[in-house]
Amino acid sequence: MKLINSTRRYLHLDINFSDYIFQKFNVLKGVWEYLALISILGLGFVVRYPLVLYNLPVSANVDERLSLAILYRFENVGLNPEWFHYPSFFYYLTFFWCDFWGDINSALFYGRILNLLFGCGLAVSVFFLSQYLYKSKTASLIAAALTMFSPLLIESGSYIITDILLAILSVIALLLLMRFFETAQYKFWLMGALVIGLAISTKYTALIVAITYVISELINYKSLSEKSRGNWLLLNKGFTHFQLTGIFSILSLILFAIVILFPHDLLMSILQTSGDLNSTVDAKDIIFFNSLRKKVLYLGILSLICTVLSYRFPRLFERFGLFRIYMGIGIITVGFLLASPYVLVSWKTFIYDFGSELKHNALHTEDSQWLAYIRYYFDKESMVVLAFFIIGIFMSFKRKINLGVLLTYLILYYIVIGSSTRSFPRYLVPALPILFAISGFGIDCVGSYLNKYRKGFRSIVLLFVIVVIGFEVYAKFPSSLFQNYNKDEIFDSYQFVKKYNPSQVYFSGDSPNVELRIAGLEVEKIPEKALLLDNYDFLTNLKPNQLIILDGAKNTQIYPEVRQQFKLLWSTNRGGGQYIYKIH
């Protein structure tokens, strides 16, 4: 008997069957949330996949057509985009991914697959963000599910566009920053700064994450100095009182000099870009110039105030001199340049295009868009989720969970997009994951609170809330998700031109110009002035086997005398309209 017992112990068999089952259950209990996460991702992938096939081989909208044009340039000209209205990182990733699986002819399909995978990656990043904040598996899974089945995120993740990758990098950067401010470990600081650089190289609006970093450094200066003492000592030092005062003084002089000697000619050249946006100078430019000049003046006044305050109250401003802030900005810049290296090669084009984007945001419409994004959310997303977001914030404060970095980002982001004078629903994409992470915690808190009154009631409440949200968001899913066999007017235009097989195609406005190039046709853009009455020689010199494609807006701009020179072959009023002409 002793021999049997010793043998059992040696072979680790000294446990009974119930203990064995309990151990296995604990193992499953430790991984169930990851199995559930995989299930959410799998179901979300299946739900989103029909959008990958929508309208092929034609782009889903003008934004995707712009992305396709950049990929086409990479394929046929080179990796220098010579176009910096958007940065390059997303397009490089998409191009190399598509090049691995196929060629430019299949770029739309594989590019959409990549963006679908980015959508799954966004849900995973929100899962880990929520788990870090709240240490709740249930809240993390709910946040991931809200992200995976968000109508706006589904729509933005269904075609080749930068917003989903921007959201992933923003969430990862914010998570790394929070870990740095909590632990003072510089590996998180370094990785966070690099990820911010990659995010800015995906879309310029990620500059908001960089500003969030600087503000968080200023807020957490004292507590972080105590935690990080002895670690990377140089980064914990800063400029002296007199050095900082001198820096603010010099900055004030530079800003006031710019205001006095305002470079109108330089800005004029910036606005006359080589790109498609704002390529002409008009009366609105004076408004734009005055707006820029006023902002520089305000910055100069602010810098002068900082000069006086830093001299009078050195302890108050010592945090502004911290070396780590400036090193962080430097690393962010390195990350940006690594992902968009041709900014250095074609720096003039970069300045021109970036200036054009500033003008386009400042003068696109007459009013700011503060209420537009609230309407977009109401139209596209769940009101129930928004209610739980408010509950989640309240419970986070009650439990002393630090949301400082996330709330700073959300407030800054809304200020930037709300004060802009153009708006699109997809501009909400980088903010939604943060909202969903906090909402998931709010839902979990309500379930846990009600569970106190009756055991097991938590599961019922969570199931009920999920069903209610599911019905609400299902009604707001993109219509193209259920109409993947329906094509838009651009697809019909593409099909007509392909069957006609012209020797050359000229276009103005939204048209399948990139898709026709990929199909092997020679395509050229019509000069803007060619549509005017006194400049239509270009159009009348066309040959009979050449076609003209105009969208609805451009078609209305043609003078009747010019239109009489052409024969309308095909047209549709669907969407933005398409009109195809040839010479009589």
TrEMBL record:
It is found in: Cell membrane. The keyword Transmembrane applies. GO terms for molecular function: pentosyltransferase activity. GO terms for biological process: lipopolysaccharide biosynthetic process. Keywords: Cell membrane, Glycosyltransferase, Membrane, Transferase, Transmembrane, Transmembrane helix. Its main location: membrane. Residues 109-227 form the Glycosyltransferase RgtA/B/C/D-like domain. The chain crosses the membrane at residues 31-51, 83-101, 113-134, 157-177, 189-215, 242-262, 296-313, 325-345, 403-420, 427-450, 456-475. GO terms for cellular component: plasma membrane. It is a multi-pass membrane protein. This is Glycosyltransferase family 39 protein.
